[in-house]
Amino acid sequence: MFHTYNPFTDQIIATYPSSSDEIVAQSINQSALALVDWKNSPLSTRIQYIQHVAHLLAASSSLAHSISIETGKRIQEAQAEVDKCILSIHQLCELAPEALSSKKHLHPLPYIQSYEPMGVILGILPWNFPIWQSVRFAVPALLAGNTVLIKPAPSVAASSLALQDLFTRCLPHHIVQTVFAETTQIPTLLSHPSIRGMSFTGSNRTGAVLAAQAGAALKPIVLELGSNDPIVLHSDYPWQDAFHTLLHARLQNNGQSCIAAKRFFVHETILTSFLEKLYDALEHLVFGDPTNPSTTVTTLVHPQAVDALQLQVQHAIDYGATTVYQYPTPADAPRAFFPPTVLVGSMDNPVLHQEELFGPVFSIIPYKTIESAISCINSSPYGLGAAIFTNDPEVWSKAQTQIQSATIVQNTIVSSDARIPMGSVKQSGIGYELGKEGLLSFTRIKIIRY
Hints:
alpha/beta, Aldehyde Dehydrogenase, Chain A, domain 1, 15 helices, 20 strands
């Protein structure tokens, strides 16, 4: 069963039956049949269909509310998620003609390089951005001529069905389908001959299992897994001017985002002043219902997430980290509430650097030299994104060339943009999403020599 749960009220919202083996098999077969006409339709036609999805998203008055109550994210962030989907659909549609067009070459000999869809692509997607993750996966695959099967996280079933309804209203039958498959059904899905590729966003442990299953069937995959993204705040930078951006980097989606900053490397000369301002900002957060626009901090997605995060924080303390601030827990706080917390730790704390703390925990690591900060950053098994706040060209040069991360930004925070490819290094994942590279992720190159 798929249960949707409101973490603020601590109540089950609705229960949905899981898809039976027969329904899963039927959905795969329908997707395979729909593929024939879809892949042979002109790209311009596919673009028109998909842009219609963006128009209906813009007209939706309830989707952000559904996201907010199922995930616990603030209503402003839920609406921002919908808005990002709308913008990204248009941007991907603009990129598609050039990215997917055949390329004629004359050297070293005459040939044409074209891109063909793979077939039915399975997306196994997380709860934290239920609409954005689906759009980010599905739209590039659809533009390339594939059909897609979406397996959403059980806790966001209502939001997933709402998006499926928009796809159903805009696209031909069975081009996009959503199945409430259980974990035990995933091996059957991946081994089905009509499923030709998979995209997964989630934990490293699950990603490794799925990668092994897909590998056994020789099927390509795109994985976005864990992260431990750092922000480096160097002594030369006027960080007060960017403080609200720094705060947002950690507290976006209440810290439950892959690209949220997890570790703050703060130069020792500015540590005291930075912490004082951070304490003051956290003290003024307002806890409340995520659907209330005045709320600035809310819950995690589920009480189990609180238990897991609390255990990690305690382990970090056991290894020498110090809790220097914790937001007062309201008397009526639900079980899914985790107080924003500030830890100060060392460069050899294994919890802060080897694990991902998925919630509103600021891990502050003082440093003396940029070389020591880079070395500590690279000790993490993850490499999704990194942000460096400095105007010193030498510091920036060392950071951008030496930090082991797929995306590095200067004087801003890491974010995704549909026009730019987003990838991972080390244990943060495999493959690319978004940008021209993302549009080609589930295509086969065909070479025609003449």
